[in-house]
Design goal:
413 residues; alpha+beta; globular
Length: 413
């Protein structure tokens, strides 16, 4: 397993493009403002097996509804993805019509059935999506498609993100080199249930549609679903995975060694994208990574780790670089899982050192000065041991800062 460049275009046969089309108009006070891309397209040279998971929010963006319908009609096959930022196309009377129109525009330009197009949107909820700039942008996107334009696409899906998020790996299946890469967006409104934010993953590995969906659903549970920025599950969350088979390996059609290798590659990409999403949380100054070990079951480990990174009080303490370990124990204590709190130990760690703050469910003496140094780093690890079994899990989050409120206080206006 080796890291490679290329993001969404790392896998053979995937090309992308992005542009600014004006979905969000330039500010009146400065109409000459340079805007980043707000719409992108990526396409496979051949038809792909496709898998997806979606938000479980009862309010679902129109693109979610259209994408689900398209994949059902196509038998979970897709060849192209179009995505825009700055407008979520959610809670609009004409939302489905416009999401469907976006697919139709791409289909007409590429000469493919529209049900083979996946559509996604992110941005402000409840504002009507202007279709006119998208009509003008699609031919530009199609003409600009290239195998090295992953960056154009990755920047086009950013909203309050401060950095692009891409990751890709190379691996071997029976001597055949395969690649898998992806891009993600997300900075706020992140507390996933089945998916989080917008995440797009491509591979040239040949995998059956059934196993593709199985792998995605399993890896989502231990990556994206173990991420929380602010406790809000978005209306437009989606993870999309496409595999075109152009690497040339024999199709993985049953579970076994080849499937496990593919899942490992998928985990590597999704876990790293998850970590990037956590580190770029709105207003964040610190990445929080909670590792829960010694659990009786995997679900217990996940539940406990997520409970800690979701705690607003603990997140605030990390912003203040305060080793208030009682907030960790409190969050562990209200986790919906079975374990003996009297066996629990907790350490806080960073690249500046490690301090033990709790053993057998009780506090132990530690130096506040040392703790302050450890917590001054921008990546903090919370190490929990339940001492109750062999299962473990990791959850990711960030600190809660003044800037989070500032960003969201005027996000729409």
């Amino acid at each position: 397993m080796k890291y490679i460049d290329g993001g969404i275009c790392a896998a053979k046969g995937f090309k992308a493009s992005g542009t600014y089309c004006g979905i969000k108009k330039p500010a009146v006070e400065n109409p000459n403002t340079t805007h980043k891309n707000d719409i992108c397209l990526y396409v496979s040279d051949v038809l792909c097996n496709a898998a997806a998971v979606y938000t479980q929010n009862k309010v679902k963006g129109a693109p979610i509804l259209v994408t689900k319908a398209n994949l059902e009609k196509s038998g979970n096959k897709a060849i192209a993805v179009i995505a825009n930022s700055k407008n979520a196309n959610t809670c609009n009377a004409d939302g489905v019509e416009k999401a469907d129109k976006m697919c139709e525009l791409v289909a007409n330009e590429l000469g493919i059935p529209k049900e083979q197009v996946i559509v996604a949107s992110t941005g402000v909820i409840g504002q009507v999506l202007p279709i006119e700039p998208i009509v003008e942008a699609v031919p530009v996107l199609a003409k600009g498609l290239d195998y090295d334009k992953n960056l154009e696409a990755a920047t086009a899906i950013m909203t309050t993100d401060t950095v692009k998020k891409e990751y890709a790996v190379e691996f071997e299946i029976n001597g055949v080199t395969c690649k898998l890469g992806g891009m993600a967006k997300g900075s706020g409104m992140i507390h996933p249930n089945m998916a989080t934010t917008l995440n797009f993953i491509t591979s040239d590995c040949a995998v059956s549609g059934e196993l593709l969906q199985k792998a995605l659903s399993e890896i989502v549970k231990v990556t994206y679903n173990c991420l929380s920025i602010d406790g809000d599950t978005s209306t437009n969350d989606m993870v999309c995975l496409m595999a075109n088979g152009l690497a040339g390996n024999d199709e993985i059609a049953c579970e076994g060694e080849e499937y496990d290798i593919f899942k490992t590659a998928l985990y590597e990409v999704m876990a790293n994208l998850t970590r990037m999403l956590a580190k770029d949380g709105e207003g964040a100054t610190k990445l929080l990574e909670c590792i829960c070990e010694g659990a009786a079951t995997k679900d217990t480990a996940i539940t406990v780790a997520k409970s800690v990174v979701c705690s607003s009080l603990f997140k605030a303490a990390m912003f203040g670089e305060d080793a208030n370990w009682g907030r960790v124990l409190c969050a562990i204590g209200y986790a919906d899982a079975e374990f003996d709190i009297n066996k629990v130990s907790v350490d806080l760690k960073s690249d500046k050192g490690i301090i033990s703050v709790c053993s057998n469910g009780a506090g132990i003496d530690f130096s506040e000065e040392e703790a302050s140094v450890v917590l001054s780093a921008d990546e903090i690890y919370i190490l929990i041991n339940l001492n109750d079994g062999d299962e473990s899990a990791t959850a990711w989050g960030c600190d809660l800062t003044y800037d989070y409120v500032k960003i969201n206080g005027d996000y729409r206006t």
